[in-house]
């Protein structure tokens, strides 16, 4: 049939084009091996990053895990910055306003003004919806399988940055030169050392040991 003949000719021409392209690429790789290796490595890294882009479910799981990690810490020692960020993510998740959009190699999480279940006209009409860059504040950036802003907030979860907020500014921070922990520890150890008195010290009597008070 004419259709089969034309189909066979088209398929043969397609194979010829692909084979010539492969031969040209192999020849270019032999002429410039370092450039070809760099190109292949770049493609592999890009593909790996694209596959590891986190999604909305991973952000919700990370927020729940962060809340579980903060719960054993006493409120007075808990980082307010980490607590506020985690509570905000959980609150937006419960209200259905947490949105994550993939941009290829990274994901962006933002707070939507309305939930997906909202039946308001301004939330349903495409002409009244806010533009993507007007929908809400940036919450987090996902890259290489991690949510970086959330991890940065949880870096020191048991350090209360606002504990000494009522103090004057010079007393809120200590410079490295003002830290004397090693000297204090050495003095504390020397305080607990036994004091040995010689016969001359006690007027000819036998040596006597006096322990430092604890």
From TrEMBL:
State the species of origin.
Answer: Taeniopygia guttata
User: What Gene Ontology terms for biological process does this UniProt record contain?
Assistant: protein insertion into mitochondrial inner membrane
Query: Can you cite an annotated GO cellular component?
Result: TIM22 mitochondrial import inner membrane insertion complex
**Designated name of the protein:** Translocase of inner mitochondrial membrane 29
User: Which sequence ranges form a coiled-coil region, renumbered to this chain?
Assistant: none
Query: What InterPro entries does the database record attribute to this sequence?
Result: TIMM29
Q: Which domain of life is it from?
A: Eukaryota
One Pfam match, by short name? Answer: Tim29
